[in-house]
Amino acid sequence: MKNLNYILIFLISYSAFSQQKVFKGDPDSAFEVARNLAFNDARKQAQDTLLLILTKYPDYHDIRDFLGSTYSWDGEYKKAREAFEYVLKKDSNRLGTWEAAIKNELYSEVPFSALKMANEALTYFPNNPDLLYLKASAQEGTNEQNEALQTIEALLKTNPNHEKAQSFKTSLVDKLSLNTIGLRSSVEIYSEVFDPMQYYLFKYSRQTKYGSIHGKVNFNRRFASNGVQFEVDLYPKITKGLYAYLNVGVSGSSLFPDIRYGFELYKSLPKSFEASLGLRALKYSQTTTIYTGSVGWYTGNDYWSFRTYITPGDSGASMSGTLNYRKYRINSDNYFSIDAGMGFSPEIYRFEFEGNENAIINLKSQKLNLGYFFTSKNNKNAWGIRSGIVHQEVSFNPGSYFWIFDVGLSWNMKFK
Q1: Closest Cα partner for 276 from 294, 300, 249?
Q2: I want to staple 238 with a disulfide (CB 3.0 to 4.6 A). Which of 98, 174, 242, 385 is the partner?
Q3: Helix or strand or coil: residue 190?
Q4: The YaiO beta-barrel domain covers which part of the protein (predicted)?
Q5: Which stretches of 78-222 are assigned E, i.e. beta strand?
Q6: How is 272-334 classified by DSSP, letter by letter?
Q7: Where are the beta strands (DSSP E) in 156-224?
Q8: Among positive and negative, which fits the CA dihedral 142, 145, 147, 153?
Q9: CA atoms of 381 and 359, how far apart (whole Å)
């Protein structure tokens, strides 16, 4: 009710002003009315009032400055630019006007103009932290991330507690860290029959403007044997909202397929959905082809996805599916995950396939996994812990089951 009374008073005052062609009255009081109108969803009335005041007081810079800000809020960047330019030509020693003018250029997505303006403003206010922050923002907009990082580091030398700059530096370091090395290890413990199975992975990846490339070395110890597999994954960008997954792997060990390869297309869809379709092929004594597809949905900090594998066989197609949920925190490397699934996929090298492909791909299986992934404060290091339980049909005794308990640890480090 109180806000409503204020608005009524402002509208009555505005009505009185709007009947004037040349302003008559107290400019300070009228300015206050206009400000309250602008902050109470009556922006057009506020702008009309401000323009009326300027008919008599064209160099009342605070008024023209505020008028420019209201234009910028409304996306009328050209009008805002004209207002700020007028003020700065009259008085270049207005820090607030410089900041508003630079932000207007950033909002209108002309970062080169914002950078030029920031450099000019810094000649009047050398080393001003807020201007340096805006300069770094403009440099990032012109794809000068290294220069933006240097600007932010200069800011933090004299203002180490500048929270926005600290956050911006973390973001820039993360973007400039195009290389990643990582290790992952896990162990599976069986309730009967098999000894524990050990899995290790070392990887190196690099981000490029065409997509990312990942080189991986897998080492397994299973069935009292050791085996190594070498893999390469590619994620090429095709066009906006469309990218692909390509994979090839080779091994001379019976624990892995001699050759594996895969292909998948991912497409962004409306309403924050994503879908994919592809295949995997594993060559042992014969080649097993697996068709796969997924649907994902981002909603706020939550991500849901469902993936299925379909493996044709002599006795019919085998199917498996997994539902995954992730709860993200500050970024994509910090999240909690849970997934549940049914059915067996031969992509998981849990058994020796040689000569048993048709029997193995039809095994019944249920699983539940939990994971927690987090990073260091600067996002340089990322860790993860994952554990799960599987209820698995025995390959050589259909209808009988055992339990598999697994736990895994991972570590990744980004660097330039």
Answers
A1: 294
A2: 242
A3: strand
A4: 179-347
A5: 179-190, 197-208, 211-222
A6: GEEEEEEEEEEESSSEEEEEEEEEEEEETTEEEEEEEEEE--TT--EEEEEEEEEEE-SSTTS
A7: 179-190, 197-208, 211-222
A8: positive
A9: 42
Query: Which tokens is 290 given?
Result: 């697996």
8 Å CB contact between 336 and 325: no
CA 280 from chain centre, in angstroms, equals 27
Q: Classify 223 in phi/psi space as left (phi over 0), alpha (psi -120 to 50) or beta.
A: left
59: tokens are: 């160099």
Q: In angstroms, what CA-CA distances link 102 with 10, 80, 81, 112?
A: 31, 11, 9, 10
Element (H, E) at 53: helix 43-56
Q: Around Cβ 221, how many Cβ atoms within 10 Å? A: 16
In order along its 416 residues, the chain shows pLDDT tens digits of: 444 444 444 554 545 555 556 777 888 888 998 899 888 888 898 998 899 899 889 999 999 999 999 999 999 999 999 999 999 999 999 999 999 999 999 999 999 999 999 999 999 999 999 999 999 999 999 989 899 999 999 999 999 999 999 989 988 888 888 999 999 999 999 998 789 999 999 999 999 989 999 999 999 999 889 999 999 999 999 998 999 999 999 999 989 999 999 999 999 999 999 999 999 999 988 888 999 999 999 998 999 999 999 988 776 778 899 999 999 998 888 999 999 999 877 677 666 655 455 555 667 889 999 999 999 887 889 999 999 999 988 777 777 888 999 999 999 999 98
Residue 316 neighbours by CB distance under 10 Å: 9
